[in-house]
Design a protein that fits this description.
globular; single chain; mainly alpha; about 80 residues; Transferase(Phosphotransferase), domain 1; 5 helices
Length: about 80
């Protein structure tokens, strides 16, 4: 779930879908989800801060995921740019 959705801001599918793509890519690369929390509040805080583990990622993957997990939707990489 993208930060703008957690914050109940206007839904813009293109940017929120790129965030979701990043979550799935992270899972495929590491075998676990990037954002976990013992409570919904903890989970949402991590999403809102893009606080995810980076130690299991190679340099190229880390760079791409950093561009995907950009907090501001307008600055987030586009789906076209990912390819």
């Amino acid at each position: 779930m993208a930060p703008e959705i957690v914050q109940k801001k206007e839904y813009r599918g293109e940017t929120a879908d790129v965030w979701a793509l990043g979550v799935m890519l992270f899972v495929m690369l590491t075998g676990y989800f990037p954002y976990k929390g013992a409570t919904d509040e903890e989970l949402y805080r991590k999403i809102n801060n893009a606080d995810y583990p980076k130690h299991d990622l190679n340099k190229l993957a880390a760079h791409l995921l950093a561009r995907i997990f950009t907090l501001e939707p307008e600055q987030r990489i586009t789906a076209e740019a990912v390819t």
